[in-house]
Design brief:
This protein has 567 residues and is an alpha+beta fold. It has three domains: 2-168, NADH:ubiquinone oxidoreductase Nqo5 subunit (Beta Polymerase, domain 2), CATH 3.30.460.80; 186-222 and 511-562, Sufe protein. Chain: A, CATH 3.90.1010; 226-331 and 343-509, Cytochrome-c3 Hydrogenase, chain B (Orthogonal Bundle). The chain has helices spanning 2-12, 16-29, 53-61, 77-80, 121-131, 162-168, 226-230, 238-242, 251-264, 271-299, 303-324, 344-368, 372-378, 386-391, 396-400, 408-411, 432-456, 506-510, 514-518, 526-531, 558-562; strands spanning 33-40, 43-48, 66-75, 83-91, 96-104, 110-111, 135-136, 186-190, 202-208, 211-218, 333-334, 337-338, 475-482, 485-493, 498-504, 542-546, 553-557. A five-stranded mixed sheet has the order 1-2-5-4-3. Strands 8-9-10 form a three-stranded antiparallel sheet. A hairpin with a 2-residue loop joins strand 9 (202-208) and strand 10. Helix 2 packs antiparallel against helix 3. The longest helix has 29 residues, at 271-299. The radius of gyration is 24 Å and the shape is globular. The chain starts with a helix and ends in a 5-residue tail after the last helix. Mean pLDDT is 88; it is low at 171-182, 194-198 and 538-567. Residues 47-163 form the NADH:ubiquinone oxidoreductase 30kDa subunit domain. Keywords: Iron, Magnesium, Metal-binding, NAD, Nickel, Oxidoreductase. Mg(2+) binds at residues 227, 503. Fe cation binds at residues 249, 539.
Amino acid sequence: MVSDIIETLASVARGSRSKSILTKVGEVCGDKLLKVERVSPSTIKVLIKADCLHEVAEVLSAERDVYFRTMAASDERPAENLFKLYYVFGIDSEGTNIVVEVPTDGEREVPSISDVVKACDWYELEAHDLMGVKFSGRFLKRLVLPDDWPEEIHPLRKDITTEEIKKLYQPQVVKRAVELGVEEIVKIPIGPYHPALHEPEYFELYVRGEKVVDARYVGFMVHRGIEKLAESMKYDQVPFLAERICGICGFVHSVSYTQAVEEALNIEVPEKTQYIRTIILELERIHSHLLWIGVALHLLGYDTGFMHAWRIREKVMVLSELLTGSRKTYGINLVGGVRKDINKEKIEKTKQTLKQVLNEYKEFVDVATSVPQVRRRLSGTGVLPGGEARAYSLVGPTARGSGLSRDVRKDYTYGAYHFVSFSIPTYSEGDNLARTLVRIDEVYESINIIEQLLDTIPSSSEIKVDSWEPQPMKLGLGNVEAPRGEVIHVVITGKYGPYRWRVRAPTYQNLQAVPTMLRGVDLADAPITIASIDPCFSCTDRAIKINIKTGKVEFIPLEVLSRGGVR
């Protein structure tokens, strides 16, 4: 029987790499490997017993071209009386996803793999918080839920309604600080500012003199429960919700969601739809990077550069409105297509504007990157070695700034990217300057991609599939290379809408490495180091300084902190 399963593994493999890797998985699992199937051209699902999960994780993590991408926990008790964990590993060199499916009854513990897959740490904590899955071999602490949340209530379980959650609990900020207990160290908490503001987050910096010796992060203080909300929505209502996950690059989420549903239900979208989605995605990358470059220069005290970056960005925002009808939250995506076409007049206007943007951007970048003070503040600070970047499965400019040439536009191609040629800017230094230069170069590449697409966009008016049939309990993955890095959505289909929707944004992955980046930096460089991953939460405009020995408290503006003004 085992030999039959291994033979099946080899038969569903997409190429030589997946064949080799799946054969190794079959060998370590033996009769604990229950089933294997290809769920889409690029995705293979492997069903295993929980007690061989750790061995499978060891096999997959040992392969240099295999990266952990995401994990989704699903309450499937209504159908099978089981919870299921879906671990998604990607073979970058082949563009193949291996989904390891692990069933559990919710009572028995599932082996933790965070010791061999460091990037899985938060996923296990979230699954424990929201779904009640227990993991052995690790300490389980709160991640998403507040410290005083009732232990027995897990909000993503199907037997918990949103109405019950609202009645159960009124949100409040709960401090989770743990003193290091080291003498002569000052603790500087950055945030949370106030729950009414944008995305309160909390960093604790432990400082000796002017050097950061350690750091920790606490987040999820305004977790919105959108995945739970989507369970009560229809398929074409969810893109509007998905696009509001991020106020800067929300289109990446609506595309990722629709692609996941389209993969699960085998919906073939028109070619022109792929072009339109890709053009808007690249416009979004340009305006997002320009926004970040401006904010980074502001944190460094170069406000002239900040104003020029945002001046150029305004032209891109006008283009977004021209093509979609809105500067942001475009609302054009639906499962199987898009709502708005791009005509010849808009194509010509876009080409003209992009030429202006390119000329102005080049002039601006040449000046901004030649300012000695800017380069000195960025060079050699916030260093993240390539080995650490790989261990955390980092994504986007953060990964590419540490030498990892990972980009889902090429590794797991989608949309119209296979119709164009472009480069992947990569730097090996791993510092704040490298991450900045990656974003600067990517703007040039995005303009190049859009120009190629506008020259070859199909003349057809077909932009959506007229009808499609939902099939319950089908698995689909959707990925998009967002400005901050890979976004990946996992969808399990229901009758009228998603049964389970798991969203993984790039900041979720990259934040786990920020404490490593902060260790050893000067306190003045902490703000730009945190900002260098382009985190998706609001900038905090002040911090608190607490002397652990005396208990004295001072309020410090972020501007002072970023200029080394703490004494």
